[in-house]
Structures are given as C-alpha cells and as structure tokens.
Amino acid sequence: xxxxxxxxxxxxxxxxxxxxxxxxxxxxxxxxxxxxxxxxxxxxxxxxxxxxxxxxxxxxxxxxxxxxxxxxxxxxxxxxxxxxxxxxxxxxxxxxxxxxxxxxxxxxxxxxxxxxxxxxxxxxxxxxxxxxxxxxxxxxxxxxxxxxxxxxxxxxxxxxxxxxxxxxxxxxxxxxxxxxxxxxxxxxxxxxxxxxxxxxxxxxxxxxxxxxxxxxxxxxxxxxxxxxxxxxxxxxxxxxxxxxxxxxxxxxxxxxxxxxxxxxxxxxxxxxxxxxxxxxxxxxxxxxxxxxxxxxxxxxxxxxxxxxxxxxxxxxxxxxxxxxxxxxxxxxxxxxxxxxxxxxxxxxxxxxxxxxxxxxxxxxxxxxxxxxxxxxxxxxxxxxxxxxxxxxxxxxxxxxxxxxxxxxxxxxxxxxxxxxxxxxxxxxxxxxxxxxxxxxxxxxxxxxxxxxxxxxxxxxxxxxxxxxxxxxxxxxxxxxxxxxxxxxxxxxxxxxxxxxxxxxxxxxxxxxxxxxxxxxxxxxxxxxxxxxxxxxxxxxxxxxxxxxxxxxxxxxxxxxxxxxxxxxxxxxxxxxxxxxxxxxxxxxxxxxxxxxxxxxxxxxxxxxxxxxxxxxxxxxxxxxxxxxxxxxxxxxxxxxxxxxxxxxxxxxxxxxxxxxxxxxxxxxxxxxxxxxxxxxxxxxxxxxxxxxxxxxxxxxxxxxxxxxxxxxxxxxxxxxxxxxxxxxxxxxxxxxxxxxxxxxxxxxxxxxxxxxxxxxxxxxxxxxxxxxxxxxxxxxxxxxxxxxxxxxxxxxxxxxxxxxxxxxxxxxxxxxxxxxxxxxxxxxxxxxxxxxxxxxxxxxxxxxxxxxxxxxxxxxxxxxxxxxxxxxxxxxxxxx
Length: 880
What we know:
By secondary structure, the protein is mostly beta strands. Among the domains are: 33-228, Sandwich (Immunoglobulin-like); 238-267 and 816-880, no CATH class; 324-612. It is 4% helix and 52% strand. The chain has four helices and 48 strands. A hairpin with a 6-residue loop joins strand 35 and strand 36. The radius of gyration is 30 Å and the shape is globular.
C-alpha cells in the first residue's frame, strides 16, 4: 500500500508540473470618476449631473462561455462628492419582458442582478460588494482573502432605486463613504469590478475580464480613479432594542415553574463605532436572538458532538476574520468543521443539571446570559488585519422548589471568552502570515461544577505563500493548547471521545487521574496548484498530538491523529457537447494514530457538472478498506471494522424556473453485512409570484447497524461492551415559505416535523475486537442468557447461565418525535431599523416502542401539547 501511495503522489506531482505554464494576464481596465456638487436623486432614473462622466462598458461574458461577447450590453457611470459614491448601471435588454423581477429579502441574490465590488483599501485582498436586483432588492457582502471568503452578514447602510423600461433596466446607488474603508490620500485609486447576472440564461458578464480558475480575483480588479480630496469618515451607529414576549406551554401539576405561561420584557443595545477609518468596534449589551431560526432536529447515536452553524447576527457578521480552521485541505477529511473559535460556545445551554430529590422541581435557564460582547476588527493600509473579541457570560443558577421552600444552585459559572486574530499581507497577499490566541476563564465556586475546566488557552500560527503568478502555493499552520482545572475536569478530558486515554492496548497513552493540566500541539502543511489550467492538485499532511484540546471555545472532534492525502482535479470550464462545464476530482487519504499505526485508508472519485439546459448533477464513489475504530467501544479497546463502499448521486433542475426540483440519494454498504444505509432526499420549490416562494424538502433515512453501541457493564471484574443490531428509520420534512411584500417587509416561515424510530435485536458482547474473522469479534447472547423485564423496562443478562442475572441494560429502543417552526415578520421601517414579530412553536415527544409508523408517529407528534413563544422586538438605528 505504501508503494501504491508513493506512485500516486508522484503521478500527481509530474502531471501538475507538466501543465504549469500559465495564461497571459488580461489587460487591466480603468474608469475616471469626477466630483459632483449636485447630488443625484436616487430614483433609478438619470439626472443631469450624470452627464459629467462618460459611460463605461465593454463587458465580457464569464459564464457559461468564457471571454465571449455577452448576449446583452451593460454600461455604468460613477460620481462622488465628499460623503458619497454614486453609481448608475444601465442593463440593456432586447427582451425586456423576460427580465426576472423576483423580489426577496436582502441578500437573497435572486433574479436579474448587477453588482459593484470596491477594493477601497486597494490591497488586492479585501473588497466591499453592493448588489441590486431588478426588483429593487439589495445585497451586500464583505469580501476577503482575495475573493475566497464572502460574508453576506455584513449589512451597511446604503441606498438603491431601480427602474424597468422597454430597453432594459437601471440601478442607481448611493453608497455613503462612511460604510467603506480607505486611506487618507490626496487622490484615491481603488480596485473596481462591475458584474451583471441575467437570470433566465444564468449568464454572467463583467467589466474587468478575470479568467475562470484564476487564483484569486480582487487583485485582478480594474481600477477606479479620479476620487480626490476625500477624507475617511468616522462611523458611529447605536441601535437600542426593546423586546416583549410571552410563552404558552403544557401545565404540569405540582410544578410551580410549569404553570403554563411565562411573560418577559427586556432591552439591550447594539453598537458600531469607527475607532479609526481602519478599525471598527462592534459591541452588544444583553443581546437577543429570539428571531433566529432553530437548529434542525437530530438523533445522535455517535460518541461525538454535533456541529451546528452559527446563526446569531452579532457573531456571524465579520466572522471570517476570527476563523482559524486547522485542516481546511481540499483532500477529504472529517475535520472540516474544526476551528479554534466556535462562537456557539458563548451563550450555550448550562452544562450542569441539578440532581433532584423526589418531589423537587427545578427552573433551569435554557441558555447562558451574554452580559456583553465586543469585537474590534479592521485592516490597516499596510495589510495588517486585526480581530479582537471579548464576551462575558453570567453565572447561571437553577431555582429548586421543594414543598414551598426554594434554593439556588449554580449550573454554569461566570465566564470570560477572549479571541484575538492577526494576519499580515505581504506583496498584496502573495504571502500572508497570521496568528490567533483564545482564552476561556471560568470563576468556579461551586463543587458540582468542578467537572468544568478553570482556564483554557489555545493559539495558532498560519502562513501561505504563492508563486508563479499565484498558481502554486504552500501553506501551513501550527496550533497548541493548554487547559487547567481540577483533577476531575482534566480526567474527563483524558477520557473524552476526542482521545480515550483509557483505551486498552494504547501503550503510548497515559491516563493520569491526578493531572491538573492537559496540553498538546498540532499542525498542517499543504502544497498545491490552482490556476486557469484544467489540472489542479493538492497534497497535505496534518498531525495532532493526543493532548490537543480546544473545545472550551473551539470545536474539535479528534486529537491523536495523523492525516495525509492528495487530491487531483480535472476542470472543463467552458461549454462543450451537452455540458456547460464538467469537473472531475479524485482523492486518496489515510488516518494514523500518534503511534504510527494506520487506522484507515480511503479513496474517492467525484464529479460535478452543469448541462446546457442549466440542470446540474453531481455524484461520488468512496471506498474504505478494513479499518480500526478507536471510538466504537466508547473508551474500550480498538475494534477492527469491515470495509465499506459509499456512493451518492444528486440532480437539480434549472432554478430560474417557476417550478424547480432537486433530488438525491446516498448509499453505504458495509462488507460482511456489517451495516447498510440508504438516504433519499428531494426538494420542490414553486414561485407562483415574483414575491412568493414555497419549498418543501423531505428526507428519508434507513439504516441497519450490526454493531451499535448500547452500554458498558462488568462481569467478574471484567468489562462487557454491549451491542445490538439497530434498525432505524428517520423522516424529516422541511417547509419554507418566503413572502416579500417589498424589500423592507418580509414574512418568512420555517417548519420541520421530524420522526425517528430505532429497534434493537441480536444483542451481543465484544469478545475479541481484533480477531481475523468478523464474527469472532463478538458473541451473540442466546435465548437462555438474555430476557426482557417489562417491570424494569430492561434486559437482564445471565452470562454464565446459572439462573441469576449478572448484569442488565435499559431497553434501548426509541421513538423520537419533534416539530420546530418559526414565523418571522421583519419590517425595516427605516434604514437599519427593524421591527420583528416572531412566533415559534416546538413539540417534542418520545417513547420506547421502537416501531416506525409514519401515521402513528405523526399523530403522536401533533398530539403533544406545543410550546408557543410570541415575541415583539423593536430596534432603531442612530447614525451619529
């Protein structure tokens, strides 16, 4: 296998070097703007002042055909005064009746669009994007990393009007200079790109031609010249809010905290202050996230925590500067979500639940209160990016009631979360060097919270260097961690699913129950090629020591791992035959532990294509040989698992049509009948009106696992790892309805019923986890060894068949049912100022029958008394 790996890597390198000659760089365009003393009226129409500057044009088609004339012509003009940049874009259309007028909420990017992107720093790495749709919807994004990162959660205050006539449509913009960042110079030169998207043809054209596959885009922008004698603007924005709400839920007799209703009223403040023209301070006091969509439902039977995306506005906006993702290689791996900073840790649900006596009831906060948070971010003119964030969460206490007497018990300590990030660009991003530091400090003064660490520090350094006109790159990062706390908290880290120091047979690991500190380090190095040519490649190596840990403020599933792999891709970017484009990729990768033992080796081939009718298709095939699992026994010895084959195929129709569909399937087949999984999903979206879209997305999941972990027991002082064969059925159905009355007034609905049932059989215990034959790795319990007790809802095991139970385990069968929904009415009644009306409903129920029945499970789900939450939130933006 080693020889095969070496030959594969050598082939990748030879092919990549063979095709390393690059295409010529297109000529850079420029446009000369002028000062206007008369501000144009932003109404989508042309005023007299626009005659002071000429039309810019000469757009080139980018998609589907590259470097070809566009089907429709586009022109633009740019003016400025001391406080604003004015942009006029004329989108000519010989079939004006076919202009897509889809109206949607801000940043939805649907329908005919035009877009201006401004590199006002003129650093070739960052830019600000402003998008206008023909219907008048606005979109805006902050772009960084030379076009590799787009942050649509950036929401500046700017103004737009559009108009449509027989010859096409027009977009007129006023962009306050306070929303941009630029240096103090007598005459400014900015990077600029203007794009157009014709929705019905899925055609994109651009003023400055940038070839497909170019390594970055901002550096290749055209230039905007003629901006003279403007001064950087100080930005001060304050947005206080008021919130009132009520909850209605099922009353629980005897429980004073479940009397069927709760009312609350609160307020807070969000702010943005331009400390300098380069740096902005964002802060929030008592933030509210009641309008944020709920996380999707799930049944997690693995040893690992589920990753959920951040959706809260304060943490999402500008989040790219706080990213430090240790293994973002193109090569497939299971560490893509890992990050030194995972903002979902801040404001999380309390990590402790009180132990209650009979007839006691607890009122436990659902989330930790964020007392305040602030972040300072920006980029200097010499290419130094800075991001600093501090968040403070309060100590949370549960109120416990016992026959008229109440007491308080701490469930989460007062905690400080800090994150700092620096990055420095050299030669306009040809070399980038950066670093990050995070810390968590908890004030633990209650013994029941000693399982939490006191202090955690993580840090990292990263760098990337490009050469040969940025088509080749080498990058790397290194990270470290140091966590301190009580012996109880450090022991919990040592025995967690990320490392399992207690695992028998892992002689290179040492479990120490007296430790008060855990530390570790890791790193990644990558070499790759990314250019306009058809062949691309990357190879990478990642190493993480067993003690590496950044889950206090970050997200990490695994330490004690070495990952290596290579990726090769073949791209056809221009139309041919029945295709608009075609991409084919292949990977190999392997995992080892820190002792050097190979755990698994995998290969993958996948493709992605668009047809000329604008349908899309993608699919993949993955093969994994026999592999070693360190987590299957949840801290027990490693288990030798049979190999498996995965494949999936997805199809999506033309999304510009009134009615569109997508569907896909995924299949996993384990060798030796060890497991099988089948997943089917689909989505249908209908847009009966330009202002209305309705989508439904069902997903059906079927799996059979011959070895599903149940629990650990002991017999004659020896451990027993108990498993069963699991048959599971899961169905979810996601509904979305979006009604846009106008770009400032929207109604959005999200609902998801979710049902899952799992039935266990063929109970067994692990006997020899590394036996040559799969069936010798476990022993099935016979009918005389295991019996179910209805009274205890448990299985009793008489392993030695002496007539008395040696150990038992609870009935693992389950039926889980959940419904989550949000209805949000959002009205931006004044630029940046909003009114929210929110109705959230949740239903959760479960039992242990294990039988899947769509009709019965859905009936049981909607028989559950719902928890309804009604909120009214009012905010107003003061720009000072």
